[in-house]
Write a structure and sequence with these properties.
- It is a single chain.
- The chain is α/β, with parallel strands linked by helices.
- It has 2 domains: 117 residues, Enolase-like, N-terminal domain (Enolase-like, domain 1, 2-Layer Sandwich), CATH 3.30.390; 212 residues, Enolase-like C-terminal domain (TIM Barrel).
- Helix content is 33%, strand content 21%.
- The chain contains 12 helices and 14 strands.
- The strands form 3 sheets. An 8-stranded parallel sheet has the order 4-5-6-7-8-9-10-11. A 4-stranded antiparallel sheet has the order 3-2-1-14. Strands 12-13 form a two-stranded antiparallel sheet.
- A hairpin with a 2-residue loop joins strand 1 and strand 2.
- Helix 2 packs antiparallel against helix 3 and helix 5 packs parallel to helix 6.
- The radius of gyration is 20 Å and the shape is globular.
Length: 359
């Protein structure tokens, strides 16, 4: 087995702002595994500082991997080795898990959703489209540009929350909106006041992570008991190990593959949440179509989808699942097996060094 990895700098169509900060360029790390018979699998890491990860930490972990311990024929065994190699590093493990499953699916002649026994319902899985924090005039333009999407996801968690929602409503007065505070409301009283204000809108579906992950469970329980809207855990739910806490403090969970460490653990996190009676959602970071398509293979386990990270960029180097009108589809995907993704742009050298690295 050979492992290659390289960086990709994704250009945002608009400055991307959430409660924690802003960016115009987001750097991801792509990884490719190639077996002795020529079977290939591609994966992606989309690391963020919130979880103490970066492209450099991803590359450091990948350099430590003994590729002789990885196999398309034994994905669980390969992941057990990676978990034993070092704790954390979930984004790097995600990249390798995706590559392993992509290769396993290609070898088996099946898409990953069939390998997992989930199937995929064409044009039936609907994703929201995210509107980042911005000035009201930019919010109006973003909402108008997203007119074809039946559901929007609005980022809040800053002093101008009311102005942000008001700008959205000027353009889309009755469209369904999901709200994500990204831990932006600091006290339970502030969070409850914001939730009551949002509920009065009449078209807010739910609110993600209203308070910081480190908030005392008693305060989160207090908020859940009083909230007029369903509350979803994002930063508070990484893997199935977080289930007991989240079942106590939230109505649902948002699973992201870069938090769980890939599709395999994402599958487990979604299934555990459903068994516990929680609503389920799969979300994303700023990502290429590799990670977005990988997440789409789990759509059958989800009540809600937020898979638009690639749509927020102008230079996605891969093609896979599409989301015209918000409806996910693999109909135009050239690849029929594995993750069903295809490289459509040449690899560019990263400014910090060579574009590829062999291990």
């Amino acid at each position: 087995m050979k492992l290659n990895f390289w960086r990709e700098a994704l250009q945002l169509a608009n400055t991307w702002t959430i409660a924690r900060g802003s960016t115009d360029i987001f750097v991801v790390v792509l990884a490719e595994l190639t077996d002795a018979d020529g079977t290939r699998g591609v994966g992606e890491a989309s690391p963020i500082r919130r979880y103490h990860e970066s492209p450099a930490t991803v590359e450091e972990f990948l350099r430590r991997v003994d590729v002789r311990r990885l196999s398309f024929a034994d994905v669980p065994g390969s992941m057990a080795y990676l978990d034993a190699l070092a704790p954390g590093n979930m984004s790097a493990k995600c990249a390798l898990n995706l590559a392993l499953l992509d290769g396993a699916g290609r070898r088996a002649g099946q898409p990953v959703y069939d390998l997992l026994g989930l199937g995929f319902r064409e044009q039936q899985h609907i994703t929201s489209f995210s509107i980042g924090i911005d000035q009201p005039e930019i919010i109006r333009k973003k909402v108008a540009a997203a007119a074809d999407f039946p559901i929007l996801k609005l980022k809040v968690g800053v002093p101008g929350d009311r102005e942000i929602l008001a700008a959205l409503r000027e353009v889309a007065p009755e469209k369904t909106v999901r709200v994500d505070a990204n831990e932006g409301w600091q006290t339970r009283e502030e969070a409850l006041e914001r939730l009551q204000w949002l509920a009065a809108d009449g078209h807010i579906e739910f609110v993600e992570q209203p308070m910081p992950q480190a908030t005392a469970p008693a305060d989160l329980r207090w908020l859940k008991e009083r909230s007029p809207l369903p509350l979803f855990a994002d930063e508070s739910y990484h893997t199935a190990a977080d289930l007991a806490h989240c079942a106590e403090c939230f109505h649902g969970v948002n699973v992201k593959l870069v938090k769980t460490g890939g599709v395999s653990a994402g599958f487990a996190a979604l299934r555990a949440a459903r068994q516990a009676g929680l609503q389920t959602m799969i979300g994303c970071m700023i990502e290429t179509s590799v990670l977005i398509s990988a997440a789409a293979h789990l759509a059958g386990l989800c009540d809600f989808l937020d898979l638009d990270g690639n749509l927020l960029t102008t230079n996605d180097p891969y093609a896979g699942v599409t989301a015209k009108g918000g409806r996910l589809s693999f109909q135009t995907a050239q690849a029929r097996t594995g993750l069903r993704v295809t490289r459509i742009a040449p690899r560019a050298a990263d400014a910090s060094g060579p574009a590829r690295e062999n291990v």
